Structure formats: structure tokens, C-alpha cells
């Protein structure tokens, strides 16, 4: 079992998932399996034949893997992406635990109850889809999606409009005046872009960071992105993407094994793996 995706050079999922299986003394080897797209069908065929719990799925296969599965749960069908495959008596079932991971991290790590809050979401890619579903289900008052390619933000909003109930949803173009207006009155900013993976880059100029808002960056490596460094200096509360990553993994573990995930053990293993990676980079 393990994680399939590409590239996987910097993944820390094997470290914290293995820690969970070892905690219970379960016989399982969780490994990163970097696949070319052409290898995906055969990998899934082999998985069907194996006596395995299943696998996690990451970019770029969260959507393309769906046609190879026997079924998927309603949440992953809503999001349109699968990050967990469970082998159930030879049948492969898809789940999405990113939604739960995002929400649990928000509530448990930041103590932030999103109900009735005004949120600005930067980004409209794969991760943003799970974030939108989570935020709508939590009952945010408003959700503004700001994306570099605006049409992608608009498509994202349209896709989930029916789920919005009382939430006011909109998409804005990626320019400073739109950003400034949206940020002025918001309670939380979520960065679901990949801006911040490289040193020094941030999706927001420091002057636009709302000091009273929670700044939630989905990036976990580096643990303190430029956005989070700037946000702290502005006095904002911050949350990085590590708890979301660990909580989505914990939810996968629980679906596979039926056992309560040892979240503290998993979090510590994830932190150690990140620290090791940072040391190796120096
Ligand atoms: P995608 O490739 O699907 O989406 C990338 C997003 O970043 C798009 O909205 C894209 O905008 C935007 N973007 C990329 N480059 C730029 C740029 N130069 N300027 C402005 N916007 C840019 O990736 P994912 O959605 O899968 O991942 C997004 C981030 O979330 C990543 O950093 C990833 O590490 C993190 N993540 C964290 C998880 C966790 O558990 N903590 C889980 C999943 C993801 P456009 O549409 O215009 O191209």
C-alpha cells in the first residue's frame, strides 16, 4: 500500500502513515509509488488482485483514477476527486478525505468555527475544490474565489453553486484592486495556490494582509511560507497545511483499518520527516 502520484520526491505521507500502522503493529508497508500516467491502469489492476488495504492518491491522479474504480462515496463524487482508494473484497471504492482534513485542521488547530464567516479563497485548482465543499458545508456567510485564470474560479463557483444554500459565492479576477476589496472585510484567507512553495514568493502583498483575519496556507513545506511570515508580522493568526495533510491521512487510515488514527503519533512523524528534509536541503 502507499501513495500514488507524480512527482513524489518530497512526500512525507509514508513517514506518518507508516507510523500509524506501526503504532498498531499492523503488517503493512506504506510506500510512495511514483507512476507515469501510462502505468496507472496496470497499477490499479494489480491493486485489485492484491490483499491490500488500498492506497492514497495525489496529483495528478485524483481525477483520472476515477474511471478505474468500481464506485465512489457521495463526497468524492461531489468534489470530483478521490484521494483514498479502499480495497473492499476485490472492489475498489474511492473516497475523498481532503474535505475532512481541511475542516478538522481549521477547527482543532486554529479553533476557528467557519459558520457565518466571510472567506477569501486564493486558487481554484484541485485542492480548492475540496476547500469549497468543506466551507460551504460549514455554512460560511460568503466565499470569494480569486484565481489567476479567472474563468477557472468562475467554473469552480458554478460547479458548487447548488451546495451554497445561504452562502453568497462569487469569483473575482486576480488583480490588486479586486483583492483589496475582497480582503478588507474578510475573517479568513485560504491560500490554495502553489505560490509559496518557493522561498520568498507569496500570493498577497504584505500591505493587503488583513490583520484581524486567520491566514490559512495549505502549503506545509516550507512550514512557514512567506505569506505566513508576513501574516504573523501583521498580527494575524496563522495556520499552515500540515494539520490538513495529517488529518486527511488520519481519515484514510480510519477508513482502511476501522481503527482510531493515532493523530499525535502521525503529526510527530510528519514533523520529524519535514525537519529531516529541511536538514538535507541545507
Ligand atoms: P493545482 O495545480 O491543481 O492548482 C494550483 C493553483 O495555484 C491554481 O489555482 C493556480 O492558478 C495557482 N497558481 C499556480 N501558480 C500561480 C502563480 N504563479 N500565480 C498565481 N496563481 C498560481 O494544485 P493543487 O490545488 O493540488 O495544490 C495547490 C496547493 O495546495 C499546493 O501548494 C499544494 O502543496 C497544497 N495542497 C496541500 C494539501 C494539504 O493537505 N495541506 C493538499 C493538497 C494541496 P491557475 O488556475 O490560474 O493556474
Query: Oligomeric status of the shown chains?
Result: single chain
Strand numbers in spatial order across the main sheet: 2-1-3-5-6-4
Number of strands: 12
DSSP strand content: 15-25%
Low-confidence stretches: none
Determine the fraction of residues in helical runs and give it as a percent range. 40-55%
Largest sheet: 6 strands, mixed
Separation of the first and last Cα atoms? 31 Å
Tally the helices: 10
Radius of gyration: 19 Å
Overall form? globular
List the bound ligands.
NADPH dihydro-nicotinamide-adenine-dinucleotide phosphate
Describe what you observe in this structure.
The protein starts with a strand and ends with a helix. With 282 residues, it is α/β, with parallel strands linked by helices. The chain has ten helices and twelve strands. The longest helix has 19 residues, at 263-281. It is globular and about 55 Å long. The structure holds NADPH dihydro-nicotinamide-adenine-dinucleotide phosphate (NDP). NADPH dihydro-nicotinamide-adenine-dinucleotide phosphate is lined by residues 59, 98, 101, 123-128, 147-149, 152, 192-195, 197, 218-220, 241, 244-245, 248.
Give the secondary structure arrangement, pairings included.
Elements: E1 2-5, H1 13-23, E2 31-34, H2 40-49, E3 54-57, E4 71-72, H3 74-79, E5 84-88, E6 91-95, H4 98-110, E7 118-122, H5 126-138, E8 142-147, H6 150-160, E9 168-173, H7 176-184, E10 188-191, E11 214-217, H8 226-233, E12 237-239, H9 242-257, H10 263-281
Parallel strand pairs: 1-2, 1-3, 4-6, 7-8, 7-10, 8-9, 10-11, 11-12
Antiparallel strand pairs: 3-5, 5-6
NADPH dihydro-nicotinamide-adenine-dinucleotide phosphate (NDP) binds at residues 59, 98, 101, 123-128, 147-149, 152, 192-195, 197, 218-220, 241, 244-245, 248.
